Amino acid sequence: MRQEQRLAAILGKLADAGSVSVTGLAEDLGTSVASIRRDLQSLEEQKLLKRTHGGAVAVEVIYELPLRYRVGRREEKRQIAEAAARFVTESVQSVGLNGGTTTTELARLLAVTRPLKVVTNALNIASDLCPRPMIDLVVTGGGVRPESYELVGPIADRALAGISLDLVFLGVDGIDARSGIATHDEVEAQTDHCLLRTADRVVVLADGSKVGKRAFSRIAGISDVHVLITDSSAPAEELDKLRSAGVEVVVA
Prior knowledge:
The chain has helices at 3-17, 22-29, 33-45, 74-85, 101-110, 123-129, 154-161, 186-196, 236-244, and strands at 19-21, 50-52, 55-57, 94-97, 116-120, 135-139, 143-145, 150-152, 165-171, 174-176, 180-183, 199-205, 217-220, 227-230, 248-251. With 252 residues, it is α/β, with parallel strands linked by helices. The chain has two domains: 3-69, Arc Repressor Mutant, subunit A, CATH 1.10.10; 74-251, 3-Layer(aba) Sandwich (Rossmann fold).
C-alpha cells in the first residue's frame, strides 16, 4: 500500500472511531510500526490529527481534507460522473468544471468522447486533459488552493468574466433548498460563483452526504442551480425540497 493510501485509510479510521493505535493500524494496513509512526507525524504536521502515546486522536476542529486524501464514496462518485456525462449531448460545445473528486471523474469521461471545449480552474483536471487531442482546454489563472488544486481569486475571476459556456458542472460541499450551494473556503466560493455565471445551465454534482448540508461560504442561491446529480444515499426529504424549489434531481 502506498503512503498516500495509508494516510487516507488512517484518516478514515480516525473519523469513524475518534482515535487509533499505532499497533492496530500496522496490523490493519499490513505495514510496519515505524511506517505508521511516520504517517502519523506527517498527518499531525498538516494539523489533521493529534498524536498521543501509542496512537493518535482526532483534532477538535474539523478540517477540509486535501483532495489527495479524499478517497471515500468512490463508487458513488463514479456513478454521479457517468450520469453527468450524459448531459453533454451533441448540442453542447463547451463546458466548465471546478475542482473536486467527482468533477475529476467526469473530466476523465469527457476526455474520450468527442471534440469539446473545456474551461477549468483545477490544475489536476487540466493535467489530465492537456494531452487529450479532442479537448480544447482553457485554464484560468489565479492563486493555487492546495486543498483542492484549484486556481482561485481575482485573477481567476477576471478570466471567467469574459467567457460564455453551454454547461457548467460544479462540485460543492453542501446543497440546501433554503441556503443554496456552498463550499468551505470563501475565496473558492467567489471563483465558483464566477464560473457559474458563465453558463446557460448549471449542474451540481454532490454525493448524498452533502445534500441538505451547509458549508461556510455560499456560492449561489438555489435558483441558480438547474440540475442536481447525487446518489441513492441522499435524504429523500431533502431531495423533495430541492424539487419543490425548481431543481431537477437525478439520482445516479
